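Tutorial, part two.
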Amino acid sequence: EKEIIERYNQEVRVFKEDDWVLFEIPKDRTGYKLIATINRGVLYWESKVKYPYLVELSIDFETTREDGLTDDLVAERLNILEDRYLEEVAKWNSCIEIGRQTENNNRKVFFASDEFVKLSEKTNEFVNKYKGEYELSYSIFRDKYWKRFRSFMKH
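Running the prediction step on this input gives:
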């Protein structure tokens, strides 16, 4: 791990380019479909190993749609909440937005960080601040090579 830190310590957080891609997976047996927006430019970034901590912010919601996706009003509320997370947590420049996925009345928003303690503290504060308005939970895990997102990469 020391080699990795030394090797990437001097690099600047610059991606070749953002490459936001929309994925839509048709309905499954339950009647729900999945929509995901992922920045594949970040997934192919060579220095992502420097950001091994992934946070998955999970937001449950109710919707008028039968396919488990957001209606316009819910989508607007969730977008506002995501913007607040970016402002209140991710703004400290050690957090990278990877993307989000929505299915089965739930939205998951994904970020990566190089700092576990600060990410955990800030995310916990955020969830506690908004838990009265939203059904929020989160998990933070170490995934040095971001294997969680391999299904979104080109093969």
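Residues 94 and 115 are 7 Å apart (CA to CA). In part three we will examine how such features are distributed along the chain.
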